[in-house]
Amino acid sequence: MWWKVILFLIMVWVIVAAFAYPAPQQQIGDASRIFYFHVPQAWVAVLAFCFSLVGSVNYLKKRNLVDDDRARVAAELGTLFCILATVTGSIFAKVTWHSFWNWDPRETSIFILLLIYGAYFALRSAIDGPEKRARLAAVYAIFAFVTMPFLIFVVPRVLPSLHPSDSIVGESGKITMSGETAMIFFPSLAAFTILFIWIYRLGLRVSRRQRELVEEAMR
Amino acid sequence: MTSNYTVMVVTLVIWIGIFSYLVILDRKTKRLEGKK
User: What is the value of ipTM here, to two decimals?
Assistant: First the structure.
């Protein structure tokens, strides 16, 4: 229970400080405060897709349906946080570039990533047998993950983009954020990570109980 | 500045809502696990 209290307090600190302290990028103004939520959400999405990859690889190795649950729950959360990052990014885009959607390389690549993971769930829902579903979904999830670093890290850096790229690390590789910004940003990163792990574990417990109930009913 | 505080309060309310929901869900899951 203690870590839940810590999570609650860290997030309260992040929310209060994000709006009470000066905006992290003065030239952009108040809209740049969204940085404290948008970047950790994107980070959690990447982390969740990594969890999904690990679960999928483990399933193919051991053929244990618990690993399939791990991959599915992680992919669900990755998609959820990816949508949240897209929505917060769109709000930022509306304020700074006067349009919710600009087909900027980063927006386009996140849209493609959402389609790829959307297809993962479509694939899962189209297959009946749990073993066959888990096997095909695991293979698909591995291929889906391979596109992720390319879409999130490579495309937006190779093509010219409106998206600010020097908020954390500058072109020279040095950390550009001020101490004040770091004091809010890193706790936010930690809080979102703990929140993800909490929901992930909760999702796994619910899946396990569901499976047990199905097995009990079949007996 | 006032609008910043309004957004802060709205965000805090959303966070308290999400946190409470998760705590309740956690308890319910524990209760279900205990019924095995």
Answer: 0.90
Q: Tell whether A30 lies on the interface with B, counting CB pairs under 8 A.
A: yes
Give the up-direction half-sphere exposure of residue A66: CA atoms within 13 A in the CB hemisphere.
6
Interval A15-47: pLDDT, tens: 999 999 888 877 778 888 999 999 999 999 999
Asked if A19 and B11 come within 8 Å (Cβ–Cβ), the reply is: yes
Q: What 8-state DSSP symbol labels residue B1?
A: -
Q: What span, in angstroms and rounded, lies between the C-alpha atoms of A132 and A141?
A: 14
**Confidence (pTM):** 0.90
Contact: B25, A202; criterion CB under 8 Å: yes
CA B7 – CA B31 distance, rounded (Å)? 36
User: Is any Cβ of chain B less than 8 angstroms from the Cβ of A3?
Assistant: no
Cα–Cα distance between A43 and B31 in angstroms, integer?
32
Residue A162: both structure tokens together: 């409106």
Distance CA A100, CA A95 (A): 8
Query: Which SS3 state, helix, strand or coil, does residue A74 take?
Result: helix
Spell out which residues of chain A touch residue B7, defining contact as CB-CB under 8 Å: 19
Provide the token pair at A199: 């929901």
